[in-house]
Amino acid sequence: MPEAIAPVPFDAPAVERGIGFFETVFLVGRRAVLWRPHLARLLGTVARFELPSPEEAEIEAAARAAVAAVSPAEREERGLRLAWMATTPDLESRASWRLHVSVRAIPAATLGRRGGASAVSLPPELTRDTPTAKSTSYFAAVMGLRWARKRGADEGLFRDRDLCYSEGTSTALVAWGDGAPFHSSCAALPSVTAAAFLAGNVRVAPVMAADIRRGALLLGSLTEVVPILSLDGEPCAVPEAMREAARAFNERLVTDASLGVEL
Q1: Beta bridge partners of 46
Q2: How far is residue 79's CA from residue 232's CA, in Å, rounded to a whole number?
Q3: Which residues of 39-51 are buried (b: 16+ CB within 10 A; e: fewer)?
Q4: Is residue 17 classed exposed, middle or buried when 0-12, 13-18 and 19+ CB atoms within 10 A define those classes?
Q5: What is the DSSP string of 198-250?
Q6: Rounded (10°) angle between helices 56-70 and 35-48
Q7: pLDDT tens for residues 82-134?
Q8: In this predicted model, what pLDDT tens digit does every residue of 154-163 receive, in sequence order?
Q9: CB within 8 A of 247, min separation 6: which ones?
């Protein structure tokens, strides 16, 4: 059986401990949107933790093979999942790590919030263990989204014990700030989509409930950029300029070839 599809042992570090990293890339036809930034984040994270790393060419070749296997239509939208997982205990050995690349349908729940999302505040006990790394250790995110859906919401927002909001379970959070958008000063994953949307104009400050209710956005590779319509059941403002900025950027994601790479 080829290594790429061989079963992962039940006691593999990726299974038992969540030792692995992943990226989800927006795929439009054969075009991987924001491919280079996603690749840079994955490889940069692996390097930061001084772990064995796949080669960039290896990842791209696997991605091309995965896309070719499904032959997507020109404007068909899907998700391209890149995963670098530890399958045996010796984390220092390159042989312990496996690259897996797959093409997946965009989840219905993700598509459902593209028109705007209702959000709820997650309890402080739900916290991502390493917020700045996109790791497969995803308990808080999975439980957080489940918690949100049970309360009729589209997304759950993490917050610390000072009630500062950081991000969603699978989305970045940006407060509109009356036209001067800002990220939260709480620890959060550096978002590829948010970086492209803000075009390098990074401002950081605590994001509190009042900031969200004055206008805020959720951003993700498959979610795109969407306004938060309500927080904990209370309506949030959706400034027209914010809505238009999100609409224009989402159009670019689908149509602007310069934002991606053909696979």
Answers
A1: none
A2: 29
A3: bebbbebbeeeeb
A4: middle
A5: HTT---EE-B-HHHHHT-EEEEETTTEEEEEEEETTEE----HHHHHHHHHHH
A6: 130
A7: 999 999 999 999 999 999 999 999 999 899 999 999 999 999 899 998 999 99
A8: 999 999 989 9
A9: none
Q: What is the Cα–Cα distance from 139 to 31, expressed in whole angstroms?
A: 31
Q: Which two tokens stand for residue 218?
A: 């959720």
The rounded distance, in Å, linking the Cα atoms of 168 and 63 is: 27
Looking at residue 3, the DSSP 8-state letter turns out to be G
- Burial of residue 173, with CB atoms counted within 10 A of its CB: 0-12 exposed, 13-18 middle, 19 or more buried: buried
Q: Alpha carbon 217 to chain centroid distance? A: 14
Q: How far apart are CA 261 and CA 235, in angstroms?
A: 38
Dihedral angle over CA of 183, 188, 192, 195, nearest 10: 20
Put simply, whether the predicted model's pTM sits higher than 0.90 gets the answer yes
Give CA separation, 1 vs 6, 10, 94, 96, 260, in Å.
Answer: 6, 18, 20, 17, 33
| 8 A C-beta contact, residue 174 and residue 219 | yes
Amino acid at 75: R
E strand or H helix at 76 = none
Computed on alpha carbons and rounded to an integer, the radius of gyration of the chain in Å comes to 18
Domains in the chain, start-ordered, CATH in brackets? Answer: 3-106 (3.30.470.10), 111-255 (3.20.10.10)
What phi and psi values does residue 230 have, to the nearest 5 degrees? Answer: -155, 155
